[in-house]
Design goal:
With 228 residues, the chain is mostly helical. Helices cover 75% and strands 0% of the residues. It has 2 domains: 76 residues, Orthogonal Bundle (Arc Repressor Mutant, subunit A), CATH 1.10.10.60; 141 residues, Orthogonal Bundle (Tetracycline Repressor, domain 2), CATH 1.10.357.
Length: 228
Amino acid sequence: MNIATLSRIPRPSKEQRIDTIVESARKVFCTRGFEKGSIVDIAKDAGIAEGTLYRYFDGKRGLLDEVLRRHYLVVFDDIQQTLPTLEGHGNRLRYLIRRILLAISGDRGICGLITRDVRQFDDKHPPLAQELNRQMAVLMAGEIKAGMKDGSFRADTSPRIVCDMIGGGLELIAYSYMRTGKEIDVNNVTDSISRTVLGGIESSDATAQSMAKLVERLEHAADRLDAK
C-alpha cells in the first residue's frame, strides 16, 4: 500500500467516533463496573488516545449518562410506537410492565450497571437512570389516572402507591436476576404482576362489563355453530 492509497482512507466522522466511544464505555462499565472501569480502558477499547476521548466527553460520568440514555431511548421509542395502538388502560399498563421486564432481561450488563453502580451517586447528583425511571412511572400513572376517569379503575386508587408497588416488584426481580443469573420468564412474570395489580384496582362495573362482553361473544359463537 503506497502513500497515495493511505491518503484516500476516510477518517471516521464525529458521530462515528462518538458511537465507538460510547459502545466501548458500555462494554467496560458492564464488564468491570463504573468504579473500576477507567477512561484509559475505554480509550484503549475504542482504539483512540485518551486525550481524544476528552474532546467529546468530560469524563466517566458523562459517558455513563450517554450509555444509559441510549439504552432507554430504545425502550421509549418502542413505547411511543406501541402504546397508542393498544386498547384499554389495563392492557396498556400490562404492556408497560412487560416492556420493562424485556429491558431488564435483554441486557444483563446494563441491568447490573443500573441496579449496582448508579446507586453510588448522591441525591445532589442523581444518575440519568433515576430521571428515566421517573418518566416511566409518569407513563404508568397516566394510564391509571385515565382508567380512574373513565371508570375502568376504582376511583379510590392511588396512582403513586400502585406505581411504587410495580416499581418495587420490578426492582426486586432485577436484583434477583443479577444475583442468580436465572432467566426471567417475561410472559409469566408479566401475567403475575398484572393480575395482582389489576385485580386490586379494576372497578366492579368494568369487570361486569368485561364479563358481559365475554358472554356476548360466546353467545355469538354458539349461534354461528348452530347455524352450520
